[in-house]
Amino acid sequence: MSLTKILPLLVAAAPIALASTAMAQSTAPAGPAAGVTTQLPRGAAPSHYMIEVTPDAANLKFTGKTVIDVTVAQSLPALVLNAADLSFGEVTLTAQGGRPVKGTAKIDADAQTVTFDFGKPVAPGAYKLAIAYAGVINQQANGLFALDYTDNGGAAKRALFTQFEAPDARRFVPSFDEPSYKATFDLSAVIPTGQMAVGNMPVKSSTDLGGGKTRVTFGTSPKMSSYLLFFGLGELDRATKMAGSTEVGVITGKGNTGKAQLALDASAAILPYYNDYFGVPYPLPKLDNVAGPGQSQFFSAMENWGAIFTFERALLVDPRFTSEATKRRIYETVAHEMAHQWFGDLVTMAWWDDLWLNEGFASWMATKVTDKLQPDWEMLLTRVDGREAAMSLDSLATTHPVVQKITTVDQVNQAFDAITYQKGEAVITMLEGYAGEDAWKAGIQAYMKAHAYGNTVTDDLWKAVEGAGAKGLVSIAHDFTSQPGIPLVKVDSAQCRGGQTVLTLSQSEYSRDQKSKTPLKWNVPVKAQTVGGEAQRLILQGNGQITLPGCGAYIVNAGQTGYFRSLYPETNVKALAKDFTKLASIDQTGLLADNFQLGLGGYQPIGLALDLVDAVPASATPAVMAEVPSYLSSAYDMLDGDAGAQGRVLAYASRKLTPVLASIGYDPKAGEGPQVPVLRQSLVSTLGDMGDQAVVAEANRRFAALATDPAALDGPLRNTWLSIIAKSADQATWDKLRAMATGAKTDLEKSSTYALLGGAKDQKLAAQALDLALTDEPGKTTSAAIISAVGYEHPMLAVDYVLAHRQQYEALIDVSARSQALARLGGGSADPAMAAKLDAYATQYLTPESRKVVDRAISSIKTRIETRGRLKAPLAAWFAGKR
After folding, report:
1. SS3 for 261-330, per residue?
2. Which residues are catalytic?
3. Residue 381 and residue 779: Cα distance in Å, rounded?
4. Which of 107, 233, 295, 639 is the most exposed place for a label (fewest CB within 10 A)?
5. Are the C-beta atoms of residues 387 and 592 closer than 8 Å to each other?
6. Upstream peptide bond of 159 is cis (omega within 30 degrees of 0)
7. Distance between CA atoms of residues 875 and 621, nearest Å
8. What is the pLDDT of residues 570-604, one digit of tens each?
9. Can you give the pTM of this predicted structure?
10. How many CB atoms lie within 10 A of CB 594?
């Protein structure tokens, strides 16, 4: 039955029909469970939506009709749904067996709701709520949005997609737009004949309406939350493979499916693994990855059930310039979004407080499956980088718990951060290590089966895993998810007795900006070992002792699965530096990161951390050596303003890294190891950014060669070479880069090249880039990337420009990210004036609830200023001693 046929014409106003007595008796309370947050009045909930939309892409608007099956559990004065940027026509409410009753719509734009009043209270019962409405097609990724691009033939095209997480389904259809209000969906669309429409489910029917229009109807979705609904439309192609009984596909602009082969192959390989791991087979008949042109500054992909949306730059491979690191990110992005098909889609958090149940688990699962299916990539090492990203936020007073209190739309949007993703992954990694892989997996499977098609809170998961045999897990999990911060495990003494090492440990809290606070307490799972010895375990509560087989250098966070910092006596750090090559790669990577941050935080001399960096030999594994440049780059940046000291950092970096680069070469070689391309990019990028003469000369040579050989830069380092050129560009070079951007053959190449224009060190050129960003030349979704690039090199220039052109800038970014955009532009500064400027902006334009990201940026700036002031002298001295 089509939507049109059951949407009745409005009749004259009549008293609302009451539900029958029998119906009222059969009606159970609907909506979120007791204790679960909702911003809508309780008492009514949907079970099914029938939606038909007719997009007018050329004029950036659409019309819609919906019929919602609503159960009312208690008498209500009116029905309140979520709606944003919608206008309303006919509205009727029909009780089962009753007549349609005309209603009126009252919009509350601030609350993003619409109230439907039918003249009398709505009695308990089952109803059909029919609504005719209209909306806008945005040009940034909120609600139904348009992406303009140039196809492979050079013609201008426009495609439509949807982005609903967190609260933007309400821009597409009036709805109960909260995760606990799960329902099934029948979606239809009237589209230009010949274009491809994409939904969560396969197309069920297609009817030619004449006049160049076709009605496409998709199959009924499973029961799901509104933010997972998806619609796409355009001149698209689709390629498919079978993974068991499921058809996996990739959908791109015409002629580009070949560039999505990596994503297609990854999907087909990952799905069987997930089916086995989760113990519940993927329930939909198809799973598409839909590639959209352009970009967002705030997300790359979205896990719509059965129709994952991903921007092209995070999904497509172009052999002319896609790096090895980007290919791996594509694989991991596919894995992350596919993991959501279970964690998030099949089982959904009850409210956004538990967003980490979606994102932390998807991040953890993506790393896990990528490591299993691509073992040569050593993906578990990346968990150290993720842990550090989380701790960079978690060490500040402005942090928040993994499970956080969400009350406003802005807070939902700001919850997508490193605490939710990377700390979530780190805590899960630690808990799996505590529980053991078998018990953990059994608990996950029990959780999936118990809560399929439903909503959960964090404790539901902990109880399932503890019930599978991980006794004591709940108390550990509560400590690390219900309170913020980072435990600091300190080794107070280490004594060798009879061939064993006895460690005396104490617990405190690691902080960058409030060391005098009373520390929080955790149940900390410690896994310790001497170098080469057998690991031992301890749950540290305050103080404790652990006895390790063997004597000599030791590690307190063996395997780096613990979410804490390890503070050693100086003698042990020096012993670890001496025995560095005897450590596992994961421990080498973790020790470098942990000790460097302890030095930054003032818990130990920064020279100890640099001694560890110095101890990494040229023969280190490529994956570990690839981490070294970032520490030298960090030291270089902290010495900003002291050209002599920066010169000594560069000289040291060149001496340490150039022989490694010379051994692997600038270009790929047949048979080189799988990690060598990542190492090469790390070396070239860092040395070039610091101004190493040899690397800069090579960049200039290759750039000059473009005059006679258009393919001179082609290869996985193309954008790396161009970023080096862009940073040191003069006017003539900048103009050449701009010409390359305008002449790019694909939108993927065009957007990446335009973004480079904002990376110029010359402030005059940076100002030109900002002006360019406000024109139509780069494209609606590329302009913000140019401004972000300027912000990285010239944060004050970018922030002042955005403040002077605030409305124009906000039109270039997603609505959901506007409250945090300025903080992202200025948050990397070390200028006290920037902290004051961000505070003044937040005071004028933001509410106390929506300024959290700004406050975090201010804390980061202040901490950075303090750290640089404290460390400039010891950093300069250490590098001076290495001449």
Report:
1. HHHHHHHHHHHHHHHHHHCCCCCCCEEEEEEECCCCCCCCEECCCCEEEEEHHHCCCCCCCCCHHHHHHH
2. 337
3. 37
4. 107
5. no
6. no
7. 27
8. 999 999 999 999 999 999 999 999 999 999 999 99
9. 0.93
10. 26
